[in-house]
Structure formats: structure tokens, C-alpha cells
Amino acid sequence: MSNDEIFAAAYREHYWAVSRYVARRLDGRADDVEEVVAEVFTVAWRRRTDLPTAALPWLYGVARNCLANAVRGHGRRRRLLDRLGNDDTAHGRHIAAGPEADTPGGWVHEALARLSAADQEVLRLTAWEQLGVDEVAVALGCGSRAASMRLHRARRRLRAEIDRMRPEPPNAEHSCMTAPKEHGHG
């Protein structure tokens, strides 16, 4: 099979997985998603001679870099708009979400958002993209042992964030579930 055919097969097989990967990280901004996915496959086309047999983790690695570029560009545009005073809040179009906007499991996303970008990514690669440690290593551009350690540490930090967010259990002294006292018989 030629490099062009290998690329075409990878494109057909992995286009939707890469699209979902990008969409989850851009919170569904459709125009941005399409642009980033197009960039991912443009890079893959240019580097089709480097395309490994297991292409998906490699494509996720390319997507990470393309996303980083897109986020930097979005940040530059946002800062420019802020300097120009041409943003939605300046024109009174800021919309506040109501309490019904809470999504089931939103607390998990909140805990995840409190982690570093690196911790978020390794957890997303395993949970959302369902990659094994060896595939995570390819996507992150590191060795399997390093990927395993990053995953272990990220899980530990996520658990700590979840524990911090959990409300305190009621005080045992004020609970009505106290054990009955034994009475002696005379």
C-alpha cells in the first residue's frame, strides 16, 4: 500500500474519532472544531510517510498540537477584542446560566477543570478516547512508564479534588442514629 493509500485509510477510519476528540476539548464550537480537524489531517497528509500502523494515538498527538495552536490564536483574538472593547459583555449581551443549566455529573467536570492541563489531557485520553497506557504514551510523545506515572498521579489529584468538593458528612454527635445504651438488670 502506498503512503497516499495508508493516509486515505487512516482518514476514513479515524476522522470521526479525531473530530470527537477535538469537539470535546473545544466545548463543541463547531466552526473551530472543523478548522482544527482540517489542520490535523493537513499535518497528517504532509507527514504521511511518518504515519504509524496504529494511527489514532499519533493523530491524537497531532490534534493536541493543533488544539494548542488554536487556543493560543483564540486567546490572541480575545485579548484584541477586549482591548477594542468589542466583546459581548461590553455591549450588554452577557447571558447568565440558570440553575437548570447544571448537567448531570457536572461536579466531575468541575473537579477536572481544577487540574492542570496535562492532568486533564491524560485523564481524557484514557476516559474519553479509551486509550491504553501505550497509546497514551504515543499521543503524549513520551514513554509508556512516563505515561503510566502521569495517569496515576492525575487520577490521584482528581480524587483529591473530588474529595475537596464533597460536602462534609453530618456530625456524628448530632445524628439520630446513635447506638442505644445498654441497661443493666438488677
Automatic annotation (TrEMBL):
<dbReference type="InterPro" id="IPR014284">
    <property type="entry name" value="RNA_pol_sigma-70_dom"/>
</dbReference>
<dbReference type="InterPro" id="IPR013324">
    <property type="entry name" value="RNA_pol_sigma_r3/r4-like"/>
</dbReference>
<feature type="domain" description="RNA polymerase sigma factor 70 region 4 type 2">
    <location>
        <begin position="107"/>
        <end position="158"/>
    </location>
</feature>
<dbReference type="Pfam" id="PF08281">
    <property type="entry name" value="Sigma70_r4_2"/>
</dbReference>
<feature type="domain" description="RNA polymerase sigma-70 region 2">
    <location>
        <begin position="20"/>
        <end position="77"/>
    </location>
</feature>
<protein>
    <submittedName>
        <fullName>RNA polymerase sigma factor</fullName>
    </submittedName>
</protein>
<dbReference type="InterPro" id="IPR039425">
    <property type="entry name" value="RNA_pol_sigma-70-like"/>
</dbReference>
<keyword id="KW-0804">Transcription</keyword>
<feature type="region of interest" description="Disordered">
    <location>
        <begin position="161"/>
        <end position="186"/>
    </location>
</feature>
<dbReference type="InterPro" id="IPR013325">
    <property type="entry name" value="RNA_pol_sigma_r2"/>
</dbReference>
<comment type="similarity">
    <text>Belongs to the sigma-70 factor family. ECF subfamily.</text>
</comment>
<dbReference type="InterPro" id="IPR013249">
    <property type="entry name" value="RNA_pol_sigma70_r4_t2"/>
</dbReference>
<dbReference type="InterPro" id="IPR036388">
    <property type="entry name" value="WH-like_DNA-bd_sf"/>
</dbReference>
<dbReference type="Pfam" id="PF04542">
    <property type="entry name" value="Sigma70_r2"/>
</dbReference>
<keyword id="KW-0731">Sigma factor</keyword>
<dbReference type="InterPro" id="IPR007627">
    <property type="entry name" value="RNA_pol_sigma70_r2"/>
</dbReference>
<keyword id="KW-0805">Transcription regulation</keyword>
